[in-house]
Write a structure and sequence with these properties.
This protein is mainly alpha-helical. Helix content is 47%, strand content 5%. The protein has nine helices and three strands. The chain has helices spanning 13-22, 35-39, 58-65, 69-79, 92-101, 110-122, 131-146, 150-165, 182-189, and strands at residues 29-30, 43-46, 54-57. Helix 2 links the parallel strand 1 and strand 2 (43-46). Helix 4 (69-79) crosses helix 5 (92-101) and helix 7 runs antiparallel to helix 8 (150-165). The longest helix has 16 residues, at 131-146. It is elongated. The termini are close together.
């Protein structure tokens, strides 16, 4: 169109743009969709034609917030995106705390499984009258079961601190039935894209 090269994305346009940037076929992505960072875009320009264009980079987000792509995907699972409503009662600050404390061991999202397991199984089974008295004792039992190699032991202590600091917050949290939805995580991490490496060429309008 008008001599401008284009690609028809088989799935999400932002996912296709992320691949084009990863393949060094483009220098950046212009979009108003924040999902672009979750699909893997590294340099995103928003409000390009407005009074104050702004460049978001994955490297700056990591430097400022300590978040990488996988973390942002998990935050979207918490806070909601095009594919899920998210968890009611958990906002940005708490989502960052959860993602930072409950890190993944084998695949993206398995830290959220342990977090949900704590919410639903470990503490949810305690009677209302005994929750406050038994909570820390049960936390210790859970962590003793999980502690193994040194790395796991350190991670267990991080999760323990989070649990102790947020033991009263869970009563306001409402999770989707399939939390965390690994199909959504997979869509972000390995989306369908046109993987052609053919370079763009401009034509006469």
């Amino acid at each position: 169109m008008c001599g401008v090269p284009y690609v028809v994305a088989p799935f999400e346009a932002e996912a296709q743009c992320a691949f084009l940037e990863e393949a060094n076929l483009v220098d950046g992505v212009v979009t108003e969709d924040s999902d672009s960072l979750l699909f893997g875009c590294r340099n995103v320009v928003r409000n390009l034609f407005g009074p104050k264009p702004h460049l978001f980079t994955s490297s700056q987000i990591k430097s400022d917030l300590g978040l990488v792509r996988e973390d942002m995907v998990k935050m979207a699972i918490f806070m909601g995106c095009d594919y899920t409503k998210g968890v009611s009662g958990i906002a940005a600050v708490n989502a960052v705390e959860v993602v930072s404390a409950w890190t993944d061991k084998s695949r993206v999202g398995d830290g959220l499984v342990r977090f949900k397991d704590w919410v639903d199984k470990r503490l949810g089974e305690i009677g209302q009258e005994t929750k406050r008295n038994r909570q820390l004792e049960i936390i210790e039992e859970v962590l003793e079961e999980d502690e193994g190699i040194e790395e796991d032991r350190v991670q267990a202590q991080i999760e323990k601190r989070y649990i102790a600091q947020h033991r009263n917050y869970r009563y306001n949290w409402v999770f989707p039935a399939n939390f965390p939805d690994f199909e959504i995580i997979e869509e972000f991490m390995t989306p369908k894209v046109d993987r052609s490496l053919e370079e763009f060429s401009w034509a006469e309008p």
